[in-house]
Design goal:
CATH superfamily of the largest domain: Glycogen Phosphorylase B
Number of domains: 2
InterPro entries: Glyco_trans_1, Glyco_trans_4-like_N, Glycosyltransferase_grp1
Keywords: Glycosyltransferase, Transferase
Shape: elongated
Distance between the termini: 26 Å
GO molecular function, one term: hexosyltransferase activity
CATH class of the largest domain: Alpha Beta
Strand content: 15-25%
Protein name: Glycosyltransferase involved in cell wall biosynthesis
Length: 374
């Protein structure tokens, strides 16, 4: 099958969508498909990557004539399906949708983000203007939490399947005995972009509150990996509240460094309420680490309370969950053992590829039905 992926952002940019799309491309190519990518992200030439780039303020990944360029590319490459990847608002990706519809190609749109009320209102308004929900596309979301607001907008006019993000679980599984620990006590870890929408300063508040609920004779430290515009605010909060002796902000880590970090972790925290999936939390769960996350987020698709970790519907519940795991070594150990010994079948690449192939087949049927209706 010839597959053309369209995404505003792609390598060399590093983020959740960029990395996940690149991993999907590799997995599909390994499965024997012919896979190419169209992106508005500038960068060095890569095999099979078509960069539709224009000089834009702040390096924004968009092209003012993107639809025209993508139409030409689709006419030249004639893919069997166009797979578009969108965040909350992705102008270039939606140009890909319009181009594929005009070219009468099957279209699958994967939404990687959680639509908040403002985003839902935006898409409802665009639907009133363009009628995009009647374009015979097929949509997938990365979690049940991400699928619910999409279904509320499209009202059954667009099929919305849940296809999980993929993970090479074997790369994150702990091998052999755990490495010797350099520090005593409970090690809390979080990994993610330090952006305001992820509420990283609120994470520091959570840790400070949890620390006060844990006996002082239980040593506790936290490593918060990542970089982004909220880093300065976090550093100021750490200094203002005297957390520098037990909270570390080491910046961005490579995947290898994250794997090593998770080997020493006792608790992983993913506190953002609007987390559409939580690939870092999935990596932690695969590494055997108990996960604390919001019950409303996509993490709830692979973390059950008391099984793979603890879920909270409020900030206070998250605080109590972190404190409980810090105090209760037996609970931590039982969850960690369960995570190490239980497979994550729905997130394995064979399951993910099968889910997308079903979406591609449905998109082709909808395209054909639209053609017969003309």
């Amino acid at each position: 099958m010839r597959i053309l992926h369209v995404s505003d952002c792609y390598l060399p940019r590093l983020g959740g969508i960029e990395v996940q799309v690149a991993d999907l491309v590799r997995a599909q190519a390994a499965a024997g498909h012919e896979v190419e990518v169209a992106t508005a992200t500038p960068g060095e030439p890569l095999p099979g990557v078509h960069r539709v780039v224009a000089p834009m303020p702040f390096g924004l990944p968009v092209h003012p004539r993107g639809t025209r360029h993508l139409l030409r590319l689709m006419a030249a490459r004639r893919p069997d399906v166009v797979h578009v990847h969108t965040g909350a608002v992705s102008p270039f990706a939606w140009m890909g949708v319009r181009a594929a519809v005009r070219a009468r190609l099957p279209v699958v749109v994967t939404v990687h983000s959680m639509w908040d009320p403002v985003t839902r209102a935006l898409y409802q308004g665009l639907d009133a203007i363009w009628g995009w929900s009647r374009w015979r596309v097929v949509s997938t979301a990365v979690s049940n939490a991400a699928a619910r607001p999409i279904r509320a907008v499209v009202g059954g006019r667009v099929p919305v399947a849940v296809v999980s993000n993929g993970l090479d679980v074997s790369a994150w599984r702990p091998q052999g005995d755990p490495p010797p620990r350099e520090h005593e006590g409970v090690h809390v870890v979080a990994v993610g972009r330090l952006a305001p929408r992820k509420q990283p300063v609120r994470l520091l508040k959570l840790l400070l509150r949890a620390r006060r609920l844990v006996p002082r004779d239980v040593p506790m430290r936290a490593t918060l990996v990542g970089d982004g515009p909220a880093r300065g605010s976090m550093e100021r909060y750490v200094r203002a509240h005297g957390m520098g002796d037990w909270v570390s902000l080491p910046g961005r880590y490579s995947r290898e460094q994250i794997r090593a970090l998770l080997a020493s972790a006792d608790v992983f925290v993913a506190p953002a309420p609007r987390e559409s999936f939580g690939i870092a939390a999935l990596e932690a769960r695969a590494a055997g680490v108990p996960v604390v996350a919001r019950a409303q987020s996509g993490v709830a698709d692979f973390v059950r309370p008391g099984k793979e970790g603890l879920l909270g519907r409020s900030f206070d519940e998250l605080v109590r969950s972190v404190a409980l795991l810090a105090r209760d070594g037996g609970l931590r150990a039982s969850i960690a053992l369960h995570n190490r010994e239980t497979e994550l079948t729905r997130c394995l690449w064979p399951s993910v590829l099968e889910g997308f192939e079903q979406a591609y087949a449905l998109a082709a049927r909808r395209r054909d039905a639209a053609g017969r209706g003309r």
